[in-house]
Design a protein that fits this description.
Elements: E1 2-7, H1 11-20, E2 28-34, H2 37-46, E3 52-55, H3 64-74, E4 80-84, H4 89-98, E5 102-105, H5 114-130, E6 141-145, E7 160-165, E8 168-173, H6 179-187, E9 195-198, H7 206-224, E10 231-232, H8 246-257, H9 260-263, H10 265-278, H11 282-299, H12 315-332, H13 340-356, H14 363-369, H15 374-385, H16 389-407, H17 412-418, H18 424-435, H19 439-445
Parallel strand pairs: 1-2, 1-3, 3-4, 4-5, 9-10
Antiparallel strand pairs: 6-8, 6-9, 7-8
Amino acid sequence: MLNIMLVDDEGLVRTGLRCGIDWASAGMQVVDEAGSVPQARAKLSARHDVDLIFTDIVMPGETGLDLIRHLKAERNDLPVVIMTYHDDFSYVQEALRLGAIDYIHKSEIEQDSFYATLRRIGETVARRKESGGAADGSYIQALMLVNAPGYRPPEALKCECRSLGHDAWLLLFDWETSEETRVEIENGLPGHAPLLFFSDVRQARVPDIVYAGEAFMNRDYFYRALPNLRIYEPEWPGGGESMLNSKTFRWLEEQLYSLDWLGDNALYLKILSTIQRLRLPGNTVANLFFGVRVKWQHLLENNAESAPFQRYEFWYQWVDWIAGLRRTLAVQSGCSRYSPEILRAMQRVMVFLDGHFTEDISVSQAAALVSLSESYFAKCFRAITRKSFHNYLRDMRLNYACKLLVSSHLSVARIAALSGFSDPLHFTKMFKAQYGVTPGGYRLDHAGQENLP
């Protein structure tokens, strides 16, 4: 039975927590309580039988954060759980960075999942006691679940689970997980929540893992997100981050306002790779591309009503958008011999393929999408893209497979399936014919590199 202390400045709240919760069902018992941080510190100095503390954050005078800092310095073996009605996530983040092992919003007490959370916390503390108080250094791998509302880790999962608040979780493993385990966890996530995989955390503290996950979501996820991919392996944050300056931004604008990037593929790719390398925030990318479209409408005296400007969520969507704008501008500026109607039809097919390239799509289906005959569609598509429809679709699938090989640790068979190839052997054959190396060899050759668009 774990001995716990309740720390909350409201006496009625402490009474409600002490008497209204079936602590015994989670293997716990309340042995003491405190109405302030100084009182808690005084009581803890006199007794050493407390195994776990549940504390509020915001209290008069010293806060729950101050208590965690004190325990980190004086009683680092004594775990703390945040239990509060407070909704300011910055406080929760700081508490977790300081070493709190979990976070519970008091509104959860009335939910069915509360006792599962309580038992999970109890098992974590019990494991720590059995291992002599081993903490961060005892973990081998970690998974960070982000934007997963309603998710609760299954009790059968043999790992330490910590709530990060705001629908985020940190799963800490003292064993090496298999791909099957990670896929099983992935399949249990709601919606399209990303799952961040840290393959080796033996030299990292838990706050460092949380910080690395937050840094990835704030800076890299916008650029590394891909359709159908949910498991990502962030890199540990470094000090050499590229910074945007006004000169570079002006260069981007000047190139996008010129005719050169419409016909020069090398310059076009350099513009995209520069944006990606600088890690421009999503809003900055949206403002840059919106300005480009407005500028070109003015230059071409195009007063036709255009589709509403959409702020996309991920970089690959912006790459698709700017590619479509480039094709349209090429026609409107006289860089193409095809009519705007035909180009728009081809663009519509290309946009459709961007979202459905993993499906079994025929030339006749694509032609029907834009109400053209199969032969005329195939002729126009080859002339505009300089590839046959089948080769264009194949290249899309192979290009996506390259991105997965570099940015994930998924098996070649799973990557083949995610990229639209039903037969892994056929995929390997096609891949080697295209790139001169097997998928496994490509992954080794590009280890540690990021995909350019």
